[in-house]
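Summarise this fold before class:
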Amino acid sequence: MTTDPSRRPRVLVARKLFDEALQPLREACEVQYNDSDRSATPAELRAWLQDKQGALITGSERIDAALLDACPGLRVVATMTVGYDHVDVPACAARGVVVTHAPDVLDETTADFGMALLLGAVRQMGVAERYLREGRWKRWSADLFAGADVHGSTLGIVGMGRIGRAVARRAALGFGARILYHNRRRLDPALERESGAEYRSLDELLGQSDHVLLALPYSPESRHLIGAAELARMRPGSTLVNIGRGGLVDEPALAAALHSGHLGAAGLDVFEGEPTPNPVLLEAPRLLITPHIASASLPTRRAMVRLAVDNLLAVLGGKAPLTPVPAPGA
């Protein structure tokens, strides 16, 4: 890549990130930096990208066909997230725009949080803390916020990629849980043995698990994968946790299952309409909900930005991206 300032690639960094992780980008490119830490409107994003060859985005910025048509010089879009449902990948491919994401670097941190969210939901930690803070705790009682156990339970994991397998290791080794899993494709036998997991159809998994954790990406086919019928198949008193994508769960159906008592608890780090949750979720009992923070450790978030920077520099320098998004249909 040339370092001639007059010929340096022009790049947009769409949100406030970590300055030290962006330094290599500043040294090689002409960078426009949105350091206000607010999401651009679609019109602003189009205007900012019209003279850019590269974009470093978060999950808050949407790249679609209309924007790409307005920004014909764009060559690469690097999202610092592992998910990429905010980017129209087929539209990018049709226009020769490379799309990269940030897998691997957040797997262990997200798995840590998945276990924390499961434990917090099952043991009703969020509800109990609010109860205490509101001054409502007046006496101890044997069944006050008594939840279920995770140790020795059966955990069903839907989406047995790197994050799902990392959750499985924690649950099996740390909590003695039996692990069931469902995946679009069954794991290689060696990976299955390594994970200590048993394959099940989705219906079988839902009916045989004490707790169900979703760790799969979003696609139009997986929208509302867990709806009223699937929730009804889950064991009475069981738990649903989602660290995948919000659109995987039919939220009114989930709220209804919690209100009826059929589900013992639920934990969501993701939901449809982020950042504004559906009011039915806020009114649902025994629901622990967090603002999409499963990867939010400082070392991991910095590593996600660095990987996005490395992808941008590679593509703009005429090299292959480090972690490209899979081609449409792959």
Q: What stands out?
A: The longest strand covers residues 263-268. Residues 156 and 180 are 5 Å apart (CA to CA). The two ends are 30 Å apart (CA to CA).
